[in-house]
Design goal:
The complex is a heterodimer. By secondary structure, chain A is an alpha+beta fold. Chain A has three helices and four strands. The two termini of chain A are about 20 Å apart. Chain B is α/β, with parallel strands linked by helices. The chains are: A alpha+beta, B alpha/beta.
Chain lengths: ~90, ~450
């Protein structure tokens, strides 16, 4: 099972460390990362494998959102299917 | 891996353009609850609803969290109560509304639809008792929604029912006058009612439906309006194409959520209803889509054409996105629930007459329209008759959800709050239809050929 993490906000030091730290602890494998600056906003998208994740989906969602809040970022954690269904026929 | 723009498009649709799943509605058949004792019938109804729907709200919330898409409402529709209750000796059907209300409260849904009767050709004993009980049922319960189908293309229009519904609506208004006649917002009078509509207040579980089913209603007027705003001066081909693509994406969300809910609840998936359902929130308005096409205000000449294009393009985009499309499927134009419609009605751009014309080309009908409290019952019946005629002749669903607010006059505004929004009191024709409505009987079914 895969999920997509979207991080949007002001660029600053430590974003990647904060997010990947949480993922590593929960046994989540990062499959792909892309990042860019769009309309002056730091935007990072991560595709992750959650089949061996050792916490509940909701717990991970809350942890990422909390970490995002501390850094002033909007962090979303969503199952991959929502993007597949919308953008792939 | 996805393109970064694709991911952001989805994220923005949800966070900025208010894309959401408007409702997951569980349809439950109550046919096996019939018994000759009202107590047994009520116990069976309560037990069945609370058993089948016990995980509905939690499952909805889980899906919401996993996919990061808001699911605004979790609701239940049941077999029309007139069919279930008439097997027993009970004469006061309001007691069944109370049971529905209690069951809905127990499982945590905000509305339950199906306090309904289908009387397009005539009344049975149960139909009569149900209609009689509507004012009591809607004024004493919180979550129960009621609907009555008074006409179909194949049967014509039951004008006795039309007449009676005018009186029932007035009674509902009177009994809830201290709450802006709120009972009327839970009562829909239909022509050609669909049996699998997931949207309230008109939802019920039709007799051709399975034991239990999951229907999903999508929404997303804000997404369509946003897509159109970037199309300055483009021709209608481009406009239609853009709406189609957007509707496709919105509906795919609905299909995904419907399948997921169906799997998790172990209940078959019924349909996705492809409706653009507005809310009073800024950026979630169907009127604003029409205005984004170039109309100064919704209700201006050209509105019917704009709505026809919108409605058709939404369906064309949506049908490819879902294997089973049903319900009402189209654009809703409820006045009080749409910020753009409210503004248009307030500034005089939008009249009931124009709304009536708009209902010829979209679902559903004259929806959430507040009128002066002294509007005669016969005028309300005549408005219903006009709407039913449009539905019957054009082979489509139409409906009336009208609120004669006691003590209010044209120019006043009644506030409901939440999804129901606020409604400016609209002008109705002061000329009487009393004699017309008093005739009673049935308007015969229309010819299906020689159609001009």
């Amino acid at each position: 099972m895969k999920a997509v993490i979207t991080v949007i906000g002001c660029d600053r030091i430590g974003i990647m460390a904060a997010i990947t730290g949480i993922l590593a602890k929960a046994n989540v494998n990062i499959l792909d990362i892309s990042q860019t600056i769009m309309q002056e906003l730091f935007t990072m998208i991560m595709l992750v494998d959650i089949s061996k994740m050792n916490v509940e989906f909701s717990e991970m969602s809350d942890m990422l959102a909390r970490a995002g809040k501390e850094l002033g970022l909007d962090v979303r954690f969503q199952r991959e299917e929502i993007f597949t269904s919308m953008h792939r026929i | 891996m996805y393109n970064i723009n694709e991911i952001l498009e989805t994220v923005n649709m949800i966070s900025r353009e208010k894309l959401d799943i408007r409702t997951i509605t569980m349809g439950i058949s109550l046919r096996d609850c019939v018994s000759d004792s009202s107590k047994t019938t009520m116990r069976r109804i309560y037990d069945k609803i609370t058993r089948l729907a016990q995980d509905l709200v939690k499952t909805g919330e889980d899906i919401e969290r996993d996919f990061g898409i808001p699911i605004i409402n979790k609701r239940i529709s049941v077999t029309p109560i007139a069919l279930i209750a008439e097997g027993c000796e009970e004469e006061d059907y309001a007691v069944f509304a109370k049971v529905l209300d209690d069951a809905a409260a127990a499982v945590g849904v905000n509305f339950i639809g199906g306090f309904s009767a289908l009387v397009h050709k005539g009344f049975t004993k149960g139909d009569k008792l149900l209609i009689k009980a509507i004012p009591e049922a809607l004024s004493t319960t919180e979550r129960v929604c009621s609907s009555v189908n008074v006409a179909t293309t194949k049967a014509g229009i039951n004008m006795d029912a039309v007449k009676q519904m005018g009186l029932i609506i007035k009674d509902c208004a009177e009994r809830t006058k201290d709450k802006g006649a709120s009972a009327c917002s839970k009562l829909v009078v239909f022509a050609n009612v669909p049996e699998d509509n997931p949207f309230m207040a008109g939802a019920f579980h039709g007799i051709g439906e399975p034991e239990c089913v999951i229907n999903v209603g999508v929404s997303g007027p804000g997404v369509v309006a946003h897509a159109l705003k970037s199309l300055n001066g483009a021709d209608f081909g481009t406009v239609a194409e853009t709406i189609k693509k957007t509707a496709f994406k919105i509906t795919r969300m609905g299909q995904l959520v419907a399948q997921e809910a169906s799997q998790r609840l172990k209940v078959p998936f019924g349909i996705v209803d492809l409706s653009l359902a507005p809310t009073p929130a800024i950026g979630d308005s169907v009127a604003h889509i029409l205005e984004a096409m170039g109309l100064e205000r919704c209700g201006a000449h050209g509105t019917t054409a704009a709505l026809a294009l919108l409605n058709d393009a939404v369906k064309k985009g949506g049908v490819m996105a879902s294997s089973y499309v049903g319900g009402l499927s189209g654009a809703f134009i409820p006045v009080s629930e749409d910020a753009g419609m409210i503004d248009a009605a307030k500034c005089g751009a939008l009249s009931i007459e124009k709304l009536e014309a708009m209902t010829c080309v979209c679902s559903v009908g004259l929806d959430m329209i507040a009128v002066s409290g002294d509007t005669p019952a016969s005028t309300i019946s005549a408005i219903i008759a006009d709407e039913a005629a449009i539905g019957v002749v054009n082979n489509k669903t139409t409906a009336v959800r009208i609120i004669p607010v006691p003590g209010m006059k044209e120019g006043d505004v009644v506030e409901y709050g939440g999804l129901f929004g606020s409604a400016p009191i609209m002008r109705v024709s002061p000329f009487s239809a009393e004699e017309f409505i008093n005739r009673g009987g049935r308007i015969p079914a229309p010819l299906q050929s020689l159609r001009n």
